[in-house]
Structures are given as C-alpha cells and as structure tokens.
C-alpha cells in the first residue's frame, strides 16, 4: 500500500501501431493490447508488492563439494542466497576451481540463477614416464602431495632426483632421473699356483682356466684383456704376475691378478774330486741334472761315475775318488810294449799330445787304442781329442807337452 502511494512515472509512447502492456498482478509479466495509431500518455502501473531483494532465499543454496562459498548479501550475512548476493568460491587443499572462464565468484540474479557455474576438481599431476632400467613407487598416485621414490635395477645407479612430489600447481618437483651403469663388472682370477721345474730343465709349463667374469648390470662383457704370458707357456724360475682386465658395455672395468711361481729344485753343489773334475748337464745341480766324475791323467776313478739330482734334492750315489793308477810293471822298469807295436818305426809330430802309459796288456783303461800300423798310431797320437773341459783346463794351465 505504501508502495502504491509513491509518484508514478509517465511514459510517452509513439508507435506505428500502439501496443500497451497491462500488468497482471502476481503473474510477473505484462499482457499486450492493440490500439489504433495514436500518441498517448499512460501512467505506469504500480510496482509489485514483493521486493526481490528482501526475499531470504531467491537463488538456490550454494553447495560446493570439496570447497566453500564466502557470501556477501545486501541484507547481511544471514542471507546467503537473496537477490544480489555475491559469493566468492574457494576449494579445500588438493583441489582447485574449475568451470567456464575461470569463475571465482558468482552473484544471485533476478532470474533466480547464479551468474556462473564452478566446481572443485582434484589437483592431479601427469603420469610419470617409465624409467629405463629402473622403477618408481608413489605414495598417492598422481594426486597433490604424492611422493614418488625412484630405484634402479641391480648394477645401475641413480643419477638425479631420488624423489619427486606432485605440487599444488599440478607439476612434479625436480626432474626425471636416469639409471646409469656405474658399477664395474665382477672378475675373479684363478688361484695363484706354484710349479716345479721339469726334470733337467729350468722352466715349467703352466696351465690355468680363464677368469670368471660377470657384469652385474646387463650381464654383457665387452672384452677381457690378458697382461702376461698365455696359459700353457713355459715360465722360467721365479715369480710371475698374471693380470686380467674386463670391460663392460658402459666402459667400466675391473681387474684381478694372480701369480705363477716356478721353483727349481736344486741339490747341493758337487765338488770335483781331488785330481779330477766334473762334467754336468743342465744347470749343474738342478732336479734331473747328471754329473759325471772324470780323473786327470795318471789317476783312475774309484766309485760312482754318474750322479743324478733327484726331486728330493739329494744326489744319487756317493762321491768317487781319483786315485793314482797302479801299474802292473815295476816302477823301475819301462812299461811293456804291446807285441803289435814292437819293432815298428814310430814318428811323432810336434803337435800337442798326451803321453799314454800302457799296462802289461798294452792298454790304458781309460783310453784304449789298438794301432795296427805306424800310420794309425801317428793319427791316434796326433789327433787325440780331449774333452772340451779337459782341453780348456790344460790350455789354461799351460803344461802340454810337445
């Protein structure tokens, strides 16, 4: 009623065909009526008795899942959906507003609708890519605050961030790590070995199996290098280091080594007998060496002629003696002349030779000759060959006779 007493505005309408509107109270709209072409003045109908701004609930109540609305109403905070109410929207942690054109606030319109639509959607990061030769485990999938921890396969090491977290902006922290092969291969050499030199030699032939090699990453070994003699080689006396080096596909390397020791078993060094000398093979006193005892002229050996160095590092037999020869003829008599040489004309050259004493049988037990003619005797005396050691010894002593 008070509203009806207020001054009403006057409308001037000029139409080709006059169309006026009649207010139907309570209907919310005007009905149109046709009139003839004329200019007229009409009083506007009174406003409706209902004030939309004062209706407590004009728009639907806002209900945002995982969010909240902070509203400001013209009639005060208790009116959250009256006409003209403005609501600012927000989401709980882990969610963000979604909707057309990034709506962050809505207003209650006369149409009894809110000016926009919005909703809270969960913040999610993209799915992390797979890691070559590795994997990751996430605490909450791709949701915000989810933490993903990376690990690598055995034999590989992680380079980069070990963990990544899904952040509030929908991106992962850090950067994608990689798994690299930094671990060297595993190599095991054969055990060190010791060998005894072969009989009569100063070396030993040594064999061994190749090293055992394994790559802890992909199991692929690129190459294995040997530093030293090959298996089956002859090794001299002493200690020798054999080294192997293995390389994997990532050029990591590992080495191992072992030793080959060759021992030459030796017997005590023999001493030559008095008035005699030794003639030995190999190195003289190594395992398998033989030594022959020889006596100087006018002396004869009594005892073992050959001795052998055994693996027990002991010589066979015992040391002989070189004793002065005992002649069958009396010392005051000349040696007997063999019948075959008696009455023959002998001519000796001025070449060096050894005087040979013959016993009754006409023989020297060490140097037996049976010349049948003067020429044969000449050749024998003139070209009699001494052993190399005896010739060297006599040449050094300077006592050859002419």
From TrEMBL:
Listed GO biological process terms: angiogenesis; cell-cell adhesion; positive regulation of cell migration involved in sprouting angiogenesis; positive regulation of synapse assembly
Family matches, as CDD domains: CCP
InterPro entries, per database record: DUF4174, HYR_dom, SRPX-like, Sushi/SCR/CCP_sf, Sushi_SCR_CCP_dom
Disulfide bridges in this chain: 152-179, 295-322
Signal peptide coordinates: 1-21
A GO MF term: signaling receptor binding
Residue ranges occupied by any Sushi domain in the UniProt entry: 69-122, 123-181, 265-324
RNA-binding among keywords: no
A single Gene Ontology CC term: cell surface
Entry keyword set: Angiogenesis, Cell adhesion, Cytoplasm, Disulfide bond, Repeat, Secreted, Signal, Sushi, Synapse
Stretches assigned to the HYR domain: 180-264
Pfam families in the record: DUF4174, HYR, Sushi
Locations listed in the record: Cell surface; Cytoplasm; Secreted; Synapse
Name under which the protein is recorded: Sushi repeat-containing protein SRPX2
């Amino acid at each position: 009623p008070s509203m009806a007493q207020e001054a009403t505005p006057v409308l001037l309408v000029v139409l080709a065909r006059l169309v006026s509107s009649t207010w139907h109270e309570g209907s919310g709209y005007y009905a149109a009526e046709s009139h003839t072409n004329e200019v007229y003045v009409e009083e506007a109908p009174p406003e409706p008795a209902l004030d939309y701004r004062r209706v407590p609930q004009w728009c639907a109540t806002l209900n945002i899942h995982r969010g909240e609305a902070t509203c400001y109403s013209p009639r005060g905070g208790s009116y959250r959906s009256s006409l003209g109410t403005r609501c600012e929207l927000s989401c709980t942690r882990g969610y963000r507003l979604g909707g057309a054109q990034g709506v962050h606030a809505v207003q209650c319109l006369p149409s009894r609708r809110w000016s926009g639509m919005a909703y809270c959607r969960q913040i999610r990061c993209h799915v992390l890519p797979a890691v070559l030769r590795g994997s990751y485990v996430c605490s909450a999938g791709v949701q915000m605050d989810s933490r993903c921890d990376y690990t690598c396969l055995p034999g590989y090491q992680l380079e980069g961030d070990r963990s990544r977290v899904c952040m509030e902006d929908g991106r992962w922290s850090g950067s994608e790590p990689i798994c690299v092969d930094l671990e060297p291969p595993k190599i095991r050499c054969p055990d060190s070995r010791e060998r005894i030199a072969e009989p009569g030699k100063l070396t030993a032939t040594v064999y061994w199996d190749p090293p055992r090699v394994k790559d802890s990453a992909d199991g692929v070994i690129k190459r294995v290098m040997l530093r030293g003699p090959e298996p089956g080689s002859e090794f001299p006396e002493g200690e020798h280091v054999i080294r192997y080096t293995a390389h994997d596909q990532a050029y990591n390397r590992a080495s191992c080594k072992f030793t080959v020791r060759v021992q030459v078993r030796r017997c005590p060094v023999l001493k030559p007998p008095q008035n005699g000398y030794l003639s030995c093979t190999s190195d003289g006193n190594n395992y398998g060496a033989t030594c022959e005892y020889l006596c100087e002229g006018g002396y004869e050996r009594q005892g073992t002629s050959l001795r052998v160095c055994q693996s027990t590092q002991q010589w066979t037999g015992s040391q002989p003696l070189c004793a002065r020869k005992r002649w069958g003829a009396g010392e005051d008599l000349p040696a007997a002349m063999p019948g075959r040489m008696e009455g023959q004309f002998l001519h000796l050259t001025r070449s060096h030779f050894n005087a040979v004493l013959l016993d009754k049988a006409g023989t020297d037990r060490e140097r037996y000759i049976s010349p049948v003619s003067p020429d044969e005797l000449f050749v024998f005396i003139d070209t009699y060959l001494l052993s190399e050691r005896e010739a060297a010894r006599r040449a050094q002593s300077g006592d050859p006779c002419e």
